[in-house]
Amino acid sequence: MKGRAPMTGYDRDQFGPAWLDADRNGCDTRNDMLARDLTHLVFEPGTHDCVVVNGDLADPYTASAIHFVYGDGALVDIDHVVALGNAWATGAFRWPIRKRAAIANDPLNLLPVDASANRQKGDADAATWLPSNKAYRCAYVARQITVKTKYDLWVTPPEKSAMERVLGSCPDQRVLTDSGAPVLVPVNVTAPSAPSTPSSPAAGGGTGGSVYYENCDAARAAGAAPLHRGDPGYGPHLDGDGDGVACE
Q1: Considering its fold, how many domains does the chain have in total?
Q2: pLDDT tens per residue across span 103-122
Q3: What domain range includes position 88?
Q4: What pLDDT digit, counting tens, does each position of 137-162 carry?
Q5: What does pTM read for this prediction?
Q6: Do 218 and 140 lie in a common domain?
Q7: Residue 179 and residue 185: Cα distance in Å, rounded?
Q8: How far is CA 246 from CA 29, 67, 210, in A?
Q9: Same domain, 142 and 236
Q10: CA-CA distance, 190 to 14, in Å (whole number)?
């Protein structure tokens, strides 16, 4: 348990492209989640039951009933229960891109919810935002704890206090069953990185290919650290002790 790390380097792109087909079932994650949690589903013809165009959601955050219509962005969002910004600040800034893409697409960490409630939440943790539907708060916090445990994310002291306060009202609440999704996505995902220049050490040194990181903070933000001699982005300027492993 410790405080939040700086948000330096955080960007949604650091968690991979939005809505991969992470489980390789032919449908993207967003539509998988709509199909999982909505009822009275209607799919777009010719999409092999992938693209949800209509459905009904019993929203867990507000306890309201929402009729989802494809293309109306004000209705339903897919919430990251542990927000990606919160994940970044509690450990994900150190991860490889495939692990960040995993938490961004793990069904355990995803819920279709009222779009307005999701946008009010933003990147908040349990200390600063809870669903207005009080009957769902125990399950919400339990899901956050399950996700953070699976991905080895830490909790801040205020977050821990808020979680304990919520769970104090429901001592029989259990953590959730894992989705079974791996903690590294089984698809190729490339981390965003700084563009190379002809004068960059990586290009000039011939060891790091066309990728260049100005410093180890940039390499870590891209999910590339540690870097070994010969890896894309490796450069002597990052390897202070010259042992062939940079930004360890």
Answers
A1: 2
A2: 999 999 999 999 999 999 99
A3: 12-167
A4: 999 999 999 999 999 999 999 999 99
A5: 0.76
A6: no
A7: 13
A8: 35, 52, 17
A9: no
A10: 9
Q: Secondary structure of the chain in the HEC alphabet? A: CCCCCCCCCCCHHHHCCCCCCCCCCCCCHHHHHHHHHCEEEEECCCCCCCCEEEEEEECCCCCCEEEEECCCCCCEEEEECCCHHHHHHCCHHHCCHHHHHHHHHCHHHEEEEEHHHHHHHCCCCCCCCCCCCHHHHHHHHHHHHHHHHHCCCCCCHHHHHHHHHHHCCCCCCCCCCCCCCCCCCCCCCCCCCCCCCCCCHHHHHCCCCCCECCCHHHHHHCCCCCEECCCCECCHHHCCCCCCEECC
Tell me the residue type at 128. T
Contact 222, 238 (CB under 8 A): no
In a domain, 5, yes or no: no
Give 4's contacts (C-beta < 8 A, 6+ positions apart): 86, 89, 90, 156
Burial classification of residue 167, based on how many CB atoms lie within 10 Å of its CB (0-12 exposed, 13-18 middle, 19 or more buried): middle
| Tokens representing residue 209 in the block | 């290919």
**Could you give the CA distance from residue 54 to residue 93 in angstroms, rounded to a whole number?**
37
